[in-house]
Design brief:
Blueprint (H helix, E strand, L loop, with lengths): L1 H17 L5 E6 L9 E4 L5 E8 L5 H4 L4 E4 L3 H8 L18 E2 L8 E7 L9 E4 L10 E6 L1
Parallel strand pairs: 1-3, 2-8
Antiparallel strand pairs: 3-6, 4-5, 4-7, 7-8
Length: 148
């Protein structure tokens, strides 16, 4: 009887672990100005969410650098435009821009960076997008973030 209870408890624990939300994602970026995904879903049960950005291309960041920036939908283009004058050292983001929810630094070939942010900053009824703020990249390097 004790063995059956123990086995049932272990099964319950194991299945609970399998149902746990994935609170991170790895996004690859390339020399062809692409992200490996166009959509990211964040489970509401996540307290924090981490984006791991990788650059699998061969070009340096001053030529084909990429970052990952999160904002409300509709604000990305103006954030990217405003950030152009900030330069690569500031990841092409205007310092203190409150429209930016989270971002990684600009990376080049073989580099990685990550960012974690508080999921409670996101609202379920709001649309969000991610993009690369390197000048000219937003036209091809963007996607959606949804809270589910």
């Amino acid at each position: 009887m004790i063995r059956k209870l123990l086995a049932a408890s272990l099964l319950t624990l194991a299945s609970g672990h399998l149902l746990a939300a994935e609170c991170s994602v790895t996004v690859d970026s390339t020399d062809q100005m692409t992200f490996s995904t166009k959509a990211i879903e964040i489970d509401k049960s996540c307290k924090t969410f981490t984006v791991n950005l990788e650059h699998s291309g061969s070009l340096p960041k001053n030529v084909m650098g990429h970052n990952w920036v999160l904002s409300k939908a509709g604000e990305a283009q103006s954030i990217a435009t405003d950030g152009m004058s900030a330069g690569i050292e500031k990841s092409y983001l205007k310092e203190g821009d409150t429209r930016v929810i989270a971002y990684t630094k600009i990376i080049g070939a073989g580099e990685k960076d990550s960012v974690s942010f508080d999921v409670s900053k996101l609202e379920a009824d709001q649309n969000y997008e991610f993009f690369c703020s390197f000048p000219g990249h937003i036209s091809m390097m963007k996607g959606t973030v949804t809270l589910k």
